[in-house]
Amino acid sequence: MTRLKALNPDEATGKTKELFNAIQSKLGVVPNMMRTMGNSPALLEGYLNLSGALSHGKLGAKTGELLALAISEKNNCDYCLSAHTYIGEKLVHIDAEALNNARSANSADAKTAAILNFANVITTKQGMVSDADVNAIKEAGLTDGEIGEIVGHVALNVLTNYFNNIAKTAIDFPVVRAYNSVEA
User: Fold this and answer.
1) Is the pLDDT confidence value at 183 over 90?
2) What angle (nearest 5°) sits at the alpha carbon of residue 6, between those of residues 61 and 151?
3) What is the pTM of this model?
4) Whether residue 23 is found in the same domain as residue 39
5) Could you tell me the CATH number of the domain that includes residue 155?
6) Pair 126, 84 in one domain
């Protein structure tokens, strides 16, 4: 049972209606997470702005989806695992094995594996990483800008993971459960 109400896009008004219209025109639908975030237009706009900015970053869409899966698995967010598995497969064309491996911060590509591992370290240590952690990601070939983008992806996904776990957002994608899924 959901804890926060998903707004009906047809009944939305003001800034929320404006944001829903933009989402609808881009995606063809307003997903339940965004419908629920619409209760706070400031939150929805902030999410959309950060997500949009990161989508133009150097890490790229594929790495962004893999990061979302690694972070969502760490945070036991079934909504985000479901959404990013679907997006990764259908829109970004990532194979099922790579999607599944990302959930454990693994990748056949060494640089991608380092990125996913660093995101897990950030999440586990709540940002309090060591010099050795930062040196390891730099040794994997990441620039300071790319490291910043990883932090941005972690922040974005922690936001959506926590939001969906608190809201108990109804999953409107093929359901994927976290390995250690918990019902609160």
Assistant:
1) no
2) 30
3) 0.95
4) yes
5) 1.20.1290.10
6) yes
The residue written with tokens 């945070």 in the block is 75
Whether 97 is in a domain gets the answer yes
On whether the CB atoms of residues 92 and 183 are closer than 8 A, the answer is no
Q: How far apart are the first and last CA of the chain?
A: 10
pLDDT in tens, 92-109: 999 999 999 999 999 999
- pLDDT above 70 (res 62): yes
Rounded Cα distance between 93 and 99, Å, is 10
Tell me how far apart the alpha carbons of residues 53 and 150 are, in angstroms, rounded to a whole number.
Answer: 13
pLDDT value of position 52: 96
- CA-CA distances (angstroms) from residue 23 to 15, 18, 157? 12, 9, 19
> Can you give the residue range of the structural domain that contains 140?
60-167
The token pair at 34 is: 């965004």
Report DSSP state, residue 118.
H
Based on the domain organization, do 50 and 64 belong to the same domain? no
